[in-house]
Design a protein that fits this description.
505 residues; alpha/beta; Rossmann fold; Helicase, Ruva Protein, domain 3; 14 strands
Length: 505
């Protein structure tokens, strides 16, 4: 702490001995602090309650109210909103007094007789910790601010129903299952549920169950002890322990293996977990929010998801509507993303042109809110003026219209196989040839996408379809699929339900 910071720091010296009181006050003033004095514990309490005191230096033995009673009163929850740190001066050898002072909330104690430098060091450390605590509190407020209910954008009736439900859940610690297509904002809702709950001061720990290999996910969730397996050189706490007292968000919960489903069920039932290699279980207090874009009812019918786990997770369900079903939210969302992207750019883009707004409204947004966010960010990067026009938007957004997609396909006489091939081709092109992202956007796993690529003919230059855990080595190359053979008869064209992962806020 430099001298300028000390000049803004208010100390209070409390001692009934006027000579000691003056000595301490003068020493602290010489160091650059602002100092007030009080001749006893009762006067000290009154000065603290008047506000503005950052730290108290107090003796213990005083006639009207001793220093420990004063400490207990000013550090009590009903005392002040932001109580000052306290350094206690106690008689030499009075260890019991020192212990009691620390238990009551004192930051440090100095035993008599003492050197003034010892007191100055104790004061400096206490003030440094107070500054750190203030910064942590400020950062927590900053982190939570975007997830206040009023900051989630959605004027449509379906979203107003969602807001009403999550507001009713704000005082609850019940487990919640958040469902909806990919890209509808499931993690945003999960964060809002956490930061508006009684657990807001504790950790929010997000886990993408589909992004972590099955062989690692168990140790990531539940932790392990040293020696539990070959590379376990040290103990490691799992994400459930990290979230103790707070919230864990299990995204893509439908992708859990049966083995992990069984272990998660035990954690939810018993509120305890056993790290890998541990001799006994340990208690955890965690609220579980989960999300999926899969149909868990169908997964249960197929035997791929446990029914008992489903009901543990789905105490309350929040269903997020796709963006195509709430068109009135497109423009407010687009303007919000424009403001955000413009603030991160050297450009200052003021608005969309009217033709650009019409294009945004006409597009069906199969990738939901994340796709809209990415389109706006791209437009800000490409815009040459101070407004975004239609030419700044991607070609698939400009050319596609929600009302004529199927009509155009029928007019061209496309078969089901041809329509599927064309749609997969467009998604691959939109994702720059990255098949991992394309599979996510299509709502498929990678194996299914590779199988469809094989059905249409192997992509030129690709030796064979990789396994599910292989790297996507062709992610930077545009992919074009060969035409499938035309069928003799036509079939009704079903709705194809694409998707992307939940967008990050």
């Amino acid at each position: 702490m430099d001298r300028a910071d000390r000049a803004r720091t208010q100390l209070l010296v409390v001692d009934d001995d006027s000579a000691m009181r003056d000595f301490l006050s003068e020493s602290l003033v010489d160091e650059g602090y602002r100092v007030d004095v009080a001749a006893g514990g009762r006067a000290g309490v009154e000065r603290v309650r008047a506000g503005g005191v950052d730290l108290v230096v107090t003796d213990v033995k005083m006639p009207d109210m001793d220093g420990l009673d004063m400490l207990a009163e000013i550090r009590a929850p009903a005392g002040t909103d932001n109580p000052p740190h306290v350094v206690v001066i106690t008689a030499f050898g009075s260890i019991e007094t020192a212990k009691r002072a620390l238990k009551l909330g004192a930051h440090d104690y100095i035993t008599k007789p003492f050197e003034i430098d010892d007191l100055l060091v104790a004061v400096e450390k206490a003030l440094d910790e107070r500054t750190l605590r203030r910064e942590v509190a400020r950062l927590r407020k900053e982190v939570a601010r975007p997830y206040r209910f009023e900051n989630i954008i959605g004027k449509s009736a379906p979203m107003q129903d969602v807001f009403a439900l999550i507001r009713r859940l704000s005082g609850s610690s019940a487990n919640v299952l958040i469902t909806g297509e990919s890209g509808t904002g499931k993690e945003l809702v999960a964060r809002a549920l956490h930061f508006n709950s009684p657990r807001a001061k504790k950790q929010f720990v997000p886990v993408n169950c589909a992004a972590i290999p099955d062989t690692l996910l168990e140790s990531e969730l539940f932790g392990y002890k040293r020696g539990a397996f070959t590379d376990a050189r040290n103990d490691r706490q799992g994400m459930f322990v990290e979230a103790d007292g707070g919230t864990i968000f299990l995204d893509e919960i439908g992708d859990l293996t049966p083995q992990l489903q069984a272990k998660l069920l035990r954690v939810l039932q018993e509120r305890e977990l056993r790290p890998l290699g541990a001799a006994r279980a340990e208690k955890v207090d965690v609220r579980v929010l989960s999300a999926t874009n899969r149909d868990l009812a169908q997964r249960m019918a197929e035997g791929a998801f446990r029914e008992d786990l489903f009901y543990r997770l789905n105490v309350i369900e929040v269903v997020l509507p796709p963006l195509r079903d709430r068109a009135e939210d497109v423009l407010p969302l687009a303007e919000h993303f424009l403001t955000e992207a413009s603030s991160r750019s050297v450009k200052r883009i003021a608005a969309f042109t009217q033709p650009a707004l019409k294009v945004l409204l006409a597009y069906p947004w199969p990738g939901n809110v994340r796709e809209l966010e990415n389109v706006v960010e791209r437009a800000v990067a490409l815009a040459e003026g101070d407004q975004i026009g239609p030419d700044d938007l991607p070609s698939q957004v400009r050319e596609r219209r929600s009302s004529d997609v199927l009509a155009g396909a029928l007019a061209r006489g496309l078969t089901l196989a041809e329509l599927e091939r064309e749609y997969i081709n467009r998604v691959l092109q939109a994702e720059g040839g990255n098949k991992t992202r394309a599979a996510q956007r299509l709502g498929l796993d990678r194996k299914t996408l590779y199988r469809k690529l094989e059905e249409y003919g192997r992509v030129p230059g690709e030796a064979s379809a990789p396994t599910d855990n292989a790297d996507d080595r062709h992610s930077d190359r545009e992919v074009s699929l060969p035409e499938p053979p035309r069928a003799e008869a036509t079939m009704p064209i079903p709705r194809i339900d694409p998707g992307t992962d939940d967008f990050d806020d």
